[in-house]
Amino acid sequence: MHDVAARAGVSVKTVSNVVNAYPHVRPETRRRVEEAIEHLGYRMNVSARNLRTRRTGMITLAVPELSLPYFAELADSVIRAAESHGYTVLIEQTNSTREREAQVLSGRYQDMTDGVIFSPLALGPSDLPLFDVTFPLVVLGERVFGAPADHVTMNNVAAARAVTAHLVALGRRRIAVVGAHAGEAVGSAALRLEGYQHGLADAGIAFDPRLVGEAGLWHRATGAETMGRLLDSGVEIDAVFALNDAMALGALHALHARRVDVPGDVALIGFDDVDDVRYSVPTISSVSPGREQIAARAVELLVARIDARGAGEPAPFRRVVPDSSIVGRESTGDVPAGGGEKIVAVQEGRVETVEPVREQIAG
Q: Is 0.90 topped by the overall pTM?
């Protein structure tokens, strides 16, 4: 770095500012430094920089399964958002197991990355003490509320309620659910089922438990199996709300296999608005939960926590709920075949200050 500074006629500090992308460097100065770097073949000693700054320039994203389209697309969005802040992302797949998720919170990445964005599925409300960690943490999803961390979640109840209302407005009365989890009190399945029931009540339609199809992991295969069971049960169905798009794709496969016309006989809508649903036949309507916003806000919150470490009184924890919308496509008849898509409804997001559930964290 001293050699670069001497050749460019600047201070070592100026060279440091250039290689660390400090914005307030005059263009001509930056040009001279970059030319000197190129001529001398200088490469930053990343290990030395990390020792000096006590940062790695990396963050961890821990998700259940990259084979699920939603988490694969979320990871892509987080990577791009992190790059805009100068961070690289290390991805950990937990396989939705309690042991692997607990390891994420154990501090195993503390020396490798500067903070963690974590989407748990196996851990729940009784595991709040595990979330009282010493490193910057942002929680995603609906399994844990009240943790001592920033939290980015979805408008699950409101979105599911809006989905049900939309299907009712299309003249559907026998609306089945694919993907419920028996006995679940907290989580995406429970919240979306709650919104579905509110939507039925709003329309004066009695809840029929025979229309609720339970599934395990939210995969295409479980969606197809659950849809098949519902059809084989003989219960009357004129619409299906699949609780994620992977199951919606599986449900569509089962409906096609039984020669059920979609949307003529049965309307179908999913949740997550992954890229695959734009290329199914028919294209599948879905809830867009604001994935790009989720990724961007999660990274922003984590970077703010990283920057604030050791800077006195920490800022209050935030819960961010991005905007969501229903995207109508061919599977609900919102657009004709080959007609593209349209936004049917929008749920406005919000930002809240939240207090951790300290009594439960303390055990």
A: no
Q: 183: burial class by Cβ within 10 Å (0-12, 13-18, 19+)?
A: exposed
Among 178, 185, 166, which Cα is nearest to 285's? 166
Residue 191 pLDDT level (bands cut at 50, 70, 90): very high
Q: Map residue 188 onto helix, strand or coil.
A: helix
Question: Strand ranges (DSSP E) for the chain?
Answer: 58-63, 88-93, 116-118, 137-140, 150-152, 175-180, 212-214, 239-242, 267-271, 285-288, 317-321, 324-328, 342-347, 350-354
Residue 100: alpha-carbon gap to chain centroid? 19
Strand partners, 317: 354
Rounded CA Rg of the chain: 24
Q: What is the pLDDT of residues 91-131, one digit of tens each?
A: 999 999 999 999 999 988 777 899 999 999 999 999 999 99
Query: Judging by DSSP bridges, how do beta strands 212-214 and 175-180 pair with one another?
Result: parallel
